[in-house]
Amino acid sequence: MRRRVPGLRGVGVWGPLLVCAAAAGCGGSGGAPPFVARDSAGVRIAESRAPAWGKEQGWTVADTPELSIGVVQGDSAYQLYQVRGTTRLSDGMIVVANGGTQQLRFYDASGKFVRAVGGRGGAPGEFQALLEIVRIPGDSIVAFDWRLRRLSLFGPHGGLARTVSLAGDAGQAPLMLAGALDGGRFLAMRETLLGRGRVPEGYARDTLRLVELDDSAGQVADLGPFPGGERFVDVTRQNGRIASMQVMVLPFSRNAYVAVGDGRVWAGSSDRYEVRAFGPDGTLREIVRRTDVTPATVTDAMKTRAVEARVAARKRDNPNLSASDLAAARKALTALPAPPTAPTFSTLRVGPDGDLWVSDFRPPWAEADPSTWSVFDPEGRWLGTVSVPAGLDVYEVGRDYLLGRRKDDLGVEHVELYRLSRKE
């Protein structure tokens, strides 16, 4: 799960890049078995070089949504803006974190609006910067406000149960919610690039630190640091003091991603196709790899194509931009350095049965295409790939559905549920 630093604007966010895979006819390894699991100092290492699904097996996602919430005009209860998360409760109720109104909105299984809780403010149960929601056992909801550094726990009907401060220690970068664990514990993450009193300039790589917290936000385990996002920090000074600062995501930036599910914490940096699983006590239990994937070298031609894709996206989103504005954007993007290799994967999600979903990395020029996800079983075996409809940001994987957010051609946000079919 990659986080954008709230309140800072960059020139652009760079999309994923497709990488070479043996299943696509490149990078094969002779007669090696498609899956190998071994033990290394008590850590299980699961390596796949080919998918396990046969021709008649596999999972498919419907082309059209079974449920869609969101309208261009009409009842404001169905107008969504800055959706920060969504989850489905056991009775089919859909909960949406709507950042535009700083509310949690509840819709029944048919998509009918039921209630809204929260709102803009600082009182208990209100939000100033709603950033994330997580469903926990009992259909309760944990909502995170990054400005207030506060967790708010709501019951399945929207009643506020309690709040927990994530203020952290003075002098450290603030904590952010990354997930919920069994036993009332939380997973939090700390990005250190822009920690308190620290202002890097030029190329900088973030560090993501993961910690497990008890139900009062006391630290109980440290999962260690992960190489985070690659950035370029442009600082303007006046009279020796910082006047402005712009944090820009590098083309093909490699990042750290996190997901929680099935009693485990999954985390990995996309420099290589490797995801690590930590147990409830914070110890490393398993490493899952795809050995058929080799990081692609970032060429000048790739960077140029990415720049043009970003300029085109900016023009599409802001039709009134002048030619000089677009030229300035192109110049700024072109001046950014690029990593030597592209990322190998993107977002992580965990299904209810412990299956790990890993999104392939796509380049900016392919962002309008359907996304491809690799699915691994609870033993770390690569089962195969699943195609997800274009534009859908997947927030939750269920046994028979995917739930996420999609923007239409007008930029209007919709929360949509797509049926997931499994052929074992």
> What strand order characterises the main sheet?
1-2-21-20-19-18
Q: Which strand-content bin applies to the residues? A: 35-45%
Average predicted confidence as pLDDT: 89
What separation lies between the terminal Cα atoms? 28 Å
Summarize the helix and strand pattern as letters.
EEEEEEEEEEEEEEEEEEEEEHHEEEEEEE
Which structural class do the helices and strands define? mainly beta
Largest sheet: 6 strands, mixed
Helix % is: under 10%
CATH superfamily: TolB, C-terminal domain
CATH topology: Neuraminidase
Please provide the count of β strands: 28
CA-atom Rg in angstroms: 21 Å
CATH class: Mainly Beta
The number of helical runs is 2
Q: Number of domains in the coordinates?
A: 1
The best one-word shape is globular
Spans of at least 5 consecutive residues whose pLDDT stays below 50 are: 1-29
Reported CATH architecture: 6 Propeller
